[in-house]
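Case study 2.
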Amino acid sequence: MTVSPHDARRAAALTDEALLLECEERFFVAGGPGGQHRNKTETAVRLTHLPTGLVVTATERRSQLQNRGEALERLRALLTRLSHVPEKRIATKPSRGSKRRRLEAKRHLSQKKQDRRGDW
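Prediction:
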């Protein structure tokens, strides 16, 4: 599913509460360092933004609340990145003066290299 820049921009502008209302929130057990508390409780957070289909997870902390905040920050950063529309480039031709200067520079370099060659 492709995300339109308009949808991403709209979602990125929402408050945290409104953005969470548009998301499906799942908690799961996250392994790794952090000890028994982290390995036995469902502290990891997976947010799925339903309108765009984007999914982010946060498993670093032992606190579910901190992981939710981290996941929200990641989702907002992803939405902001997807909302960027690059400016359209306009093709231009080099001017006659720039062509002339480029050819003169090439001739000059060629002459320099020819001068290095000795008539052995």
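Helices lie at 5-12, 16-21, 35-40, 64-82, 96-116.
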